[in-house]
Amino acid sequence: MTIPSQARVVIVGGGIAGVSTAYHLTKLGITDVTLLEQGRLTCGTTWHAAGLVGQTRANRNATRMSRYGIELYSSLEAETGLATGWKQCGSVNVARTPERMKLMRRQMARAKSFGVEFEWLSPNEIRERVPVLRTDDLTGGVWIPGDGKANPTDLAQSLAKGARNRGARIFEQVRVTGVKRRGRGVAGLEWTSGDDRGEISCDYVVNCAGQWAREFGALAGVAVPLQSAEHFYIVTEPIAGVTPTMPVIRDPDGYIYFKEEVGGIVMGGFEPVAKPWNVERIPEQFEFQLLPEDWDQFEVLMENALTRMPSLETAQVKMLLNGPESFTLDGNFLLGEAPDLRGYFVCAGFNSAGIANAGGAGRLIAEWISAGEPPFDVWDIDIRRFAPLHINRRHLIDRTVETLGLHYAMRWPREELVTVRPLRRSPLYDRLKAKGAVFGTKLNWERANYFRPQDSAEAPYTLDTPAWLPWMLDEQRACREDVVVFDQTSFAKFVLKGRDALAVLEKICANRIDVDVGRIVYTAMLNERGGFESDVTITRVAADEFFILTGSAQATRDYTWIERHIDEDQHAALVDVTSAYSVLSVMGPRADALLQALGGDFAVAPLPFSTTRQIDVGYARVRAARMSYVGGPGYEIHVTTDQCVTLYDALCEAGASFGLRDAGYYTLDALRIEAGRRAWGADLSPDETPLEAGLSYAVALAKPVDFIGRDALLRQRERGISKRLVQLTLDDPAAFPWGGEPVLMDDRYVGELTSAGYSRALGRAVAFVYARSANADTPLTDAAIDAARYAVDIAGTMYSATVHRETVRP
Ligand SMILES: Cc1cc2nc3c(=O)[nH]c(=O)nc-3n(C[C@H](O)[C@H](O)[C@H](O)COP(=O)(O)OP(=O)(O)OC[C@H]3O[C@@H](n4cnc5c(N)ncnc54)[C@H](O)[C@@H]3O)c2cc1C
Known about the structure:
Blueprint: E1 6-12, H1 16-27, E2 33-36, E3 52-53, H2 60-80, E4 91-95, H3 98-113, E5 119-121, H4 123-129, E6 140-144, E7 148-149, H5 152-165, E8 169-171, E9 175-182, E10 185-193, E11 196-207, H6 213-218, E12 226-236, E13 248-251, E14 256-261, E15 264-269, H7 295-308, E16 317-328, E17 334-337, E18 344-348, H8 354-371, H9 393-405, H10 429-434, E19 437-442, E20 445-451, H11 469-481, E21 483-487, E22 492-497, H12 501-508, E23 520-526, E24 532-542, E25 545-550, H13 555-564, E26 573-576, E27 581-587, H14 591-597, E28 612-617, E29 620-626, E30 634-640, H15 644-655, E31 660-662, H16 665-674, H17 690-693, H18 710-719, E32 723-730, E33 742-745, E34 748-752, E35 755-759, E36 764-772, H19 782-787, E37 790-794, E38 797-804
Parallel strand pairs: 1-2, 1-11, 2-8, 4-13, 11-18, 21-31
Antiparallel strand pairs: 3-7, 4-6, 5-6, 9-10, 10-11, 12-15, 12-16, 13-14, 14-15, 17-18, 19-20, 21-27, 22-25, 22-26, 23-24, 24-25, 27-30, 28-29, 29-30, 32-36, 32-38, 33-34, 33-37, 35-36, 37-38
Helix pairs in contact: 1-5, 1-8, 2-5, 2-8, 11-16
The chain binds flavin-adenine dinucleotide.
């Protein structure tokens, strides 16, 4: 077989990710697929994986993907005739502490609503199931019968065979050495094999190059922020009492897992302080190779394993395997079309879960290529959640130490990562810090979450009601009774300018953008399914110039979405001005008076809602936008970064007599939920339409431009909607949901809290959830929403809740 000079899709890398992508593309009927592997299939990382396959992940769509993998692995042999080593041995996760048990209860409450079966176990029941374990120091555990293990090499070969059977061409010993671009898209690639070399022109490239994916991405100017780290397990000779039916054991408090293999044990884990593989470049020749043993690094895992499985003490250890694996900055995968280059997809960064998740990931990439958009919301694994700054080498290395180490660590609600900080800072960072700001990060921007009193330490993490609550409630009070200032400098900000700027925006925005200069429009940007790609506010600053403000996390995603919808012949330039502007939001009933006192000139002509005006605030000259995300009166002030400190100091100086205080993102979030404002990434996603989200007012169906998503909305309006965002208040004032907790409507799981906050005005938690009809074909009526009983499942305990179709009034 000779390497073709043309293919529709070329996959680079023949590990589990590459062969799964080939398998799924051909399954969808895209058979003109060529896969190039520089060594032999599986020779990178895949061949030495431990092969654990679990199904529970953090959210519904991720769990759906991993559960699909299990379905596939258990049926693949019947299709291809090649065994996969799949064994549904189940798994037992154990807890050493009550806190861990509580965390498991929260995780499993979610898993239950995603359809995962499980059973709680007492320490005695754990011992009955796995007699080789020590259990007297355990609090309890959970049995997940659907989990299992597979043989990674066999599985990959079986997927490759399935792909070949349907026409994919797979070549080994062929290295891809370059990617060719045509304009903003992919045109083809260059390869070498021994003394041969050649080119393939293609429509799509899929970078499945594993730990090489970052360097391979760089060849095409594509940022793939991942880092290789050393990753270990031991393999023992047979141990008495270890049987072939032994479930996979995870003991996260000890950072370890165990798996039976030919009567012995494979034991590995995720040490709390990890060891990035600090090589300048990943060697090109690294075929079926391993890294040197490092018993010092493995010691913490070994000690914990001896506690959990005492018979290991006398077991014969055959080897300590040290293999490199790719880790990412947040411990999640890197999937999807790269923002840097059209037609260039990435399927990498599996954080030691690539065997379990390659089935779902390969299918996702295939469906994305086939349909031109992902089939459902995959924001948490989408490569567009990162920015070009993330390719910094030092950043990757330092953060990998942390993210690998967090894999089995106790994870807390709203936990913030601690490495690579501070990186992106508002001009006010030092001032806010001096005033007690406790910072979190979004896309590496430091942002004040809350302000602690000067004599108090930071509140510790907890699963229960946090110690920062009273401080946050006082910020809420100030916002509702006096005036507060939020530093929202981290907002992503773009300017779109040019003769055709309006036409571009009218096409991608669901609301009407052709408004008077100075007006602000809140609008949805929809996909063809009518789902939210984003929601943004747009200020028309001139006839042909627009200032676009969007969430801090969406900077890359939204920039790419807008830029890709500017046709080649259109005259419109998009510029990211995020760092050129700060945004200070001055919110509360005394905001007008405060700005007036500083020269804001609102007394003569008050600024109407959704309009902007250039005003003086002290010595600063700024744009004031009359709008409020938290509800109530207030202004967003857009100020060039050079004047930000001047503006802030002026506000603070004059603010004392107005009761001004600083407030953080926890307050902002709680108040916006109380006020019924939705947030993209929480309440809004590509899976929800404005009709379902209760945001029809952000859509102008009658505008003369046929905007993206309009047809889908018209069809949906005709058909009726079967889910709708509603507010819930928890009836028990002591209940403290963090968001993500499952919700039952008449004893039926309907979804999770998309966001939750504690409201001072209501004296209880307030949250959003999508209420759903029992049957997706049945429209959801107001009467059905009102008649249902609602309960929120917090770590297995049901808390009753009251529904509000309209925003609740405090
Ligand atoms: C010790 C250890 C234990 C693990 N245990 C588990 C587990 O229990 N469960 C689990 O789910 N996961 C586990 N993993 C993780 C899993 O092995 C990986 O996530 C997975 O194998 C990654 O697959 P991949 O296809 O992305 O990468 P790889 O298997 O590395 O494949 C990438 C391929 O791309 C090729 N390539 C690179 N550059 C080029 C180029 N320019 N041209 C052509 N070819 C190129 C490479 O040669 C390589 O074969 C473990 C990993 C380690 C190290």
